[in-house]
């Protein structure tokens, strides 16, 4: 079966016009961010769905054959998850029979460098000790001129 | 899994009863107010029990009841411990409160101190920082009210937010700081009882072993003591808390209002009593996995778990406790910020010759105006509570060293203090956006110290302490 040029054009126009409605019917899952550096992330979906029939699956394989956890959904259209270690995770919404009902999304968890965290920790500890000295032991803080007395 | 457990009409009834009680109490207390000192500083005569209770209740806020569980849910053990370290702000402010009362026995605001100690340039920078923080905190409290009502009863966010703002504005307006402190005392008792009860029921019903097993299985990083972002968060939160307290007029006004020689003991006790509270509220968040509760946004985890543990009646109880926590901070912030606007902006910039009677009237207008402005900013719910509050961390941490050097050391000059606050805030913000909210206060604090020490090394200022009390008396006449 072949189409004339005019028929192809008409078909294209019809598809263009109906495409937003087709998209709107699909359940779309989207992560707040695909690269996570703190182990916590949020996922949103675009439709109000029944929370006792649908579940959120998170797996560490794209085929979803090794599930990390299955979460109950809520009516707010968003879920906040936390405590993830480094790795690549895949999420999707499934119905009670386990059939996929949304697009799968990928979240990569890559925590910040521990060496940087320790440097900032040491920096914070140093600043804190200096503050204590400044308030409680001003004579040790060396911000006086020689011989200056502590203000009364 | 949904949270909505209180019927809307019950929520409205509780709001109505609480609203009438707090506003009526504020009106009754306000009858004793005759002068500006009575309204702004409760007659400068607050005793030990009220002093300790108000300091503690004010520091128990949406931070403690909503954000502490949020940060535990996100950062685990370090989030809980790090949050409790905000008590260090109160504890370290204890000696500062004594010093403040000694240097400025007739003072009204922290702005007075900065202006007299450092001059106008530093005063302008400080006012921007302080007012920005106050608004950030006010908005986070208003938002928390809306989120709480919405989470517990399904009432629209905007209605809940408006209700809590209106109630707090009314009783602060009618009773001034006297009403704020007296309501704080009652709210402290409600909060302490509520928090302890929820913690106890969590351990009894869920069990420590179940909590540990569920967290280790599902969210192992929450128990990891080498969790990088959480380690970064620890000292950041400490300096954020210290900055919040050291610079804010909420705490300075209390230092001025407490009886002579009480401030140090009252702040120390309130800090020690406050310290375990975020541990309890945060710990409750760790039971999320065992209870199979996963919130739409992290700041709702605390109320969701509490409501689940306590059932329908418990949801009402949670509502009352969190409402008390929010109100105890909102009223304090309204009162202290209106003092700052009245004394520093209105009198300091526009009406230098304003009488105390005019200032009293203006202060009341400021409370209403501030409440209205906060309401407008709360209308679009723009960020999570934690994110909004931590955004101000870069600003407040920049003031720590100028405040401490300003109170104890003669040698820091005004220009250096102004530069320290401005540059450190800017660099803290860069850290906030480039790395994360959990480094903003720490970076700001570091940069501020470097600039202060450089200024002390380069310039040889020699401030005369007597100027503080002398100028203060002249300004108040």
Note down, in words, how this protein is organized.
- The complex is a heterodimer of chains A (152) and B (477).
- By secondary structure, chain A is of the alpha+beta class.
- Chain A has 2 domains: 83 residues, Sandwich (Immunoglobulin-like), CATH 2.60.40.10; 40 residues, no CATH class.
- Chain A has 2 helices and 8 strands, in the order αββββββββα.
- Chain A has a 5-stranded mixed sheet with strand order 2-8-7-4-5, with no helix packed on it. A 3-stranded antiparallel sheet of chain A has the order 1-3-6, with no helix packed on it.
- Chain B is an all-alpha fold and 477 residues long.
- Chain B has a single domain, classed as Up-down Bundle (Sodium/glucose cotransporter).
- Chain B has 23 helices and no strands.
- In chain B, α5 packs parallel to α11.
- The longest helix of chain B has 50 residues.
- The relative contact order of chain B is 0.18.
- The mean pLDDT of chain B is 86.
- The interface between A and B is large, with 50 and 53 residues.
List the helices and strands and how they pair.
The complex is a heterodimer of chains A (about 150) and B (about 475).
Chain A: H1 5-25, E1 29-31, E2 35-36, E3 41-45, E4 54-59, E5 67-72, E6 78-81, E7 87-95, E8 105-109, H2 114-136
Parallel strand pairs in A: 2-8
Antiparallel strand pairs in A: 1-3, 3-6, 4-5, 4-7, 7-8
Chain B: H1 8-30, H2 36-41, H3 48-59, H4 62-75, H5 77-84, H6 87-103, H7 110-118, H8 120-153, H9 157-205, H10 208-218, H11 228-247, H12 249-257, H13 263-274, H14 276-285, H15 288-291, H16 301-350, H17 356-378, H18 385-391, H19 393-397, H20 400-408, H21 414-434, H22 437-458, H23 466-476
Helix pairs in contact in B: 1-9, 3-9, 3-13, 3-16, 4-5, 4-14, 4-16, 5-11, 5-14, 6-11, 6-12, 6-13, 7-8, 7-23, 8-9, 8-16, 8-17, 8-18, 8-21, 9-14, 9-16, 9-17, 11-22, 12-16, 14-16, 16-17, 20-22, 21-22
CATH superfamily of the largest domain in chain A: Immunoglobulins
Tally of structural domains of chain B: 1
The overall strand count of chain A is 8
How is the main sheet of chain B built? none
Which second-level CATH architecture of chain B applies? Answer: Up-down Bundle
Through-space gap between termini of chain A: 100 Å
In the sheet with the most strands of chain A, the strands line up as 2-8-7-4-5
How would you name the oligomeric state of the polypeptide chains in this document? heterodimer
The coarse overall form of chain B would be: globular
SSE sequence of chain B, one letter per element: HHHHHHHHHHHHHHHHHHHHHHH
SS elements, strand count of chain B = 0
Helix percent of chain B reads over 70%
Question: CATH homologous superfamily of chain B?
Answer: Sodium/glucose cotransporter
Output the CATH topology of chain B.
Answer: Sodium/glucose cotransporter
For the largest interface, the chains and their residue counts are:
A-B, 50 and 53 residues
Instruction: Quickly give the structural class of chain B.
Output: mainly alpha
């Amino acid at each position: 079966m072949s189409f004339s040029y005019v028929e192809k054009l008409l078909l294209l126009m019809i598809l263009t016009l109906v495409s937003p409605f087709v998209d709107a019917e699909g359940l779309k899952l989207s992560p707040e961010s695909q690269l996570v550096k703190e182990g916590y992330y949020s996922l949103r979906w675009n439709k109000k769905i029944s929370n006792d029939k649908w579940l959120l699956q998170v797996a560490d394989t794209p085929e979803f054959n090794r599930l990390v956890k299955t979460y109950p959904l809520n009516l707010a259209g968003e879920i906040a998850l936390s405590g993830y270690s480094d790795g690549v995770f895949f999420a999707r919404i499934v119905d009670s029979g386990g059939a996929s009902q949304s697009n799968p999304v990928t979240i990569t968890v890559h925590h910040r460098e521990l060496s940087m965290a320790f440097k900032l920790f040491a920096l914070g500890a140093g600043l804190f000790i200096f503050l204590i000295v400044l308030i409680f032991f001003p004579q040790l803080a060396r911000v006086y001129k020689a011989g200056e007395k502590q203000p009364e | 899994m949904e949270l909505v457990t209180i019927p809307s009409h019950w929520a409205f009834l509780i709001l109505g009863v609480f609203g009438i009680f707090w506003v009526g109490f504020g009106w009754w207390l306000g009858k004793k107010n005759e002068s500006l000192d009575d309204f702004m500083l409760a007659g400068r005569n607050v005793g030990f029990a009220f002093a300790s209770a108000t300091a503690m209740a004010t520091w128990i806020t949406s931070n403690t009841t909503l954000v502490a569980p949020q940060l535990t849910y996100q950062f685990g053990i370090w989030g809980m411990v790090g949050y409790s370290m905000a008590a260090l702000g109160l504890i370290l402010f204890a000696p500062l409160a004594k010093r403040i009362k000694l240097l400025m026995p007739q003072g009204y605001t922290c702005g007075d101190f900065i202006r007299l100690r450092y001059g106008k340039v530093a005063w302008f920078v400080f006012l921007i920082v302080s007012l920005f923080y106050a608004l950030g905190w006010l908005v986070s409290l208003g938002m928390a009210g809306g989120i709480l009502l919405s989470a517990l009863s399904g009432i629209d966010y905007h209605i809940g937010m408006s209700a809590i703002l209106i109630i707090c504005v009314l009783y602060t307006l009618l009773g001034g700081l006297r009403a704020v402190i007296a309501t704080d005392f009652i709210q402290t008792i409600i909060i302490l009882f509520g928090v302890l009860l929820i913690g106890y029921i969590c351990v009894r019903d869920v069990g420590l072993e179940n909590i540990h097993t569920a967290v280790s299985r599902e969210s192992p990083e929450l128990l990891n003591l080498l969790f990088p972002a959480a380690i970064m968060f620890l000292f950041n939160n400490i300096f954020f808390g210290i900055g919040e307290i050291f610079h804010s007029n909420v705490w300075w006004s209390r230092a001025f209002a407490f009886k002579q020689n009480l401030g140090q003991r009252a702040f120390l006790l309130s800090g020690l009593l406050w310290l375990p509270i975020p541990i309890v509220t945060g710990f409750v968040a760790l039971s999320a996995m065992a209870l199979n509760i996963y919130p739409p946004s992290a700041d709702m985890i605390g109320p969701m778990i509490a409501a689940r543990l306590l059932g329908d009646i418990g949801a009402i109880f949670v509502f009352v406790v969190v409402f008390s926590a929010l109100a105890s901070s909102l009223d304090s912030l309204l009162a202290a910020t209106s003092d700052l606007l009245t004394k520093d902006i209105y009198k300091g910039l526009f009406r230098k010759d304003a009488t105390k009677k005019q200032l009293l009237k203006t202060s009341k207008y400021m409370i209403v105006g501030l409440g209205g402005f906060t309401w407008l900013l709360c209308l679009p719910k723009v960020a999570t509570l934690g994110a909004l509050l931590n955004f101000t961390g870069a600003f407040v941490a920049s003031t720590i060293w100028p405040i401490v050097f300003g109170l104890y050391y003669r040698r820091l000059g005004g220009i250096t203090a102004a530069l320290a606050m401005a540059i450190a805030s800017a660099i803290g913000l860069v850290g906030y956006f480039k790395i994360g909210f959990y480094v903003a206060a720490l970076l700001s604090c570091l940069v501020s110290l470097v600039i202060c020490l450089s200024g002390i090394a380069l310039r040889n200022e020699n401030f005369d302490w007597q100027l503080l009390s002398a100028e203060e008396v002249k300004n108040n006449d």
